[in-house]
Design brief:
- The chain has 215 residues and is an alpha/beta fold.
- The chain has one domain: Rossmann fold (3-Layer(aba) Sandwich), CATH 3.40.50.150.
- It is built from eight helices and seven strands, in the order ααβαβαβαβαβαβαβ.
- A seven-stranded mixed sheet has the order 3-2-1-4-5-7-6, with helices on both faces.
- It starts with 17 loop residues before the first helix and ends with a strand.
- It binds S-adenosylmethionine.
- S-adenosylmethionine binds next to helix 5 and helix 8.
Length: 215
């Protein structure tokens, strides 16, 4: 099968618990499959956030709980993380999270609609070896893709603990001129994510990008 995009993730099966497997049976209740669906559901909320690669779902759960009047779309391919999120949604009766359980580029490969007020990407897979740089999610063409789905004056937040990735993200912003640096962080970030914590424990610096969409 010919893949449309070079995978930006390692499809880890990981250890999946019984609880996560059980939760995954109700994934469809909380799933979105198209941008039209996102647009339709978002009309019931004040704002619409997109978190790409939510991992163990710590951040999206925290943000969605703090801001119940906003809709949070979480995108992830990692099944145990998706299972954790579904079980939290059910246990805590969270009604403002929906899940796109596939490569985000498949959602963004549809006719653009300006639906997102903020897009959040915390520690995208770094692909540190040079021969793998082409697998990195954030590049010029991805920024163009995401730009088309963001509302005017919306925000994009990215963090990475890999200096070389930070340099290439910075370069991508510079060349495509679709965003400008902003002093505004689109969400209140009270704690570090699992991968941010790991990077700092391993002695790496955390680089953050707050950008605002230009028309
Ligand atoms: C390094 S982990 C970071 C997880 C979490 N944000 C954190 O900081 O703890 C990157 C995550 O992005 C997900 N990911 C990578 N490419 C993706 C894509 N194209 N669409 C959706 N998720 C993706 C991976 O499955 C992985 O769980």
């Amino acid at each position: 099968m010919q893949l449309k995009f070079l995978p930006s993730f390692v499809k880890r099966k990981g250890r999946i618990t019984k609880k996560q497997t059980q939760s995954l049976t109700s994934l469809s209740e909380f799933s979105v499959k198209s941008i039209q669906e996102v647009e339709y559901i978002s009309k019931q909320f004040d704002k619409c956030y997109l978190e790409i690669g939510f991992g163990n779902a710590e951040n999206i759960i925290c943000q969605a709980t703090n801001e119940p009047s906003s809709l949070f779309i979480g995108s992830e391919v990692y099944m145990s993380g998706i299972g954790t999120l579904v079980s939290n949604i059910k246990e805590n009766k969270i009604n403002n999270i929906r899940i796109f359980s596939d490569d985000i580029r498949l959602l963004l490969d549809q006719r653009p609609k300006k639906v997102f007020d903020s897009v959040i990407i915390i520690c995208p897979d770094p692909w540190p070896k040079e021969k793998h740089h082409k697998r990195r999610l954030i590049n010029k063409s991805f920024l163009k893709m995401i730009h088309d789905f963001m509302k005017d004056d919306s925000n994009l937040y990215i963090s990475t603990d890999w200096e070389n990735y930070a340099e290439s993200i910075s370069e991508s912003f510079k060349v495509n001129k679709l965003f400008k640096p902003s002093s505004h962080k689109p969400f209140q970030k009270d704690s570090l994510s699992k991968f941010e914590r790991r990077g700092i424990e391993e002695g790496r610096e955390l680089f953050e990008f707050n950008y605002e969409k230009l028309l």
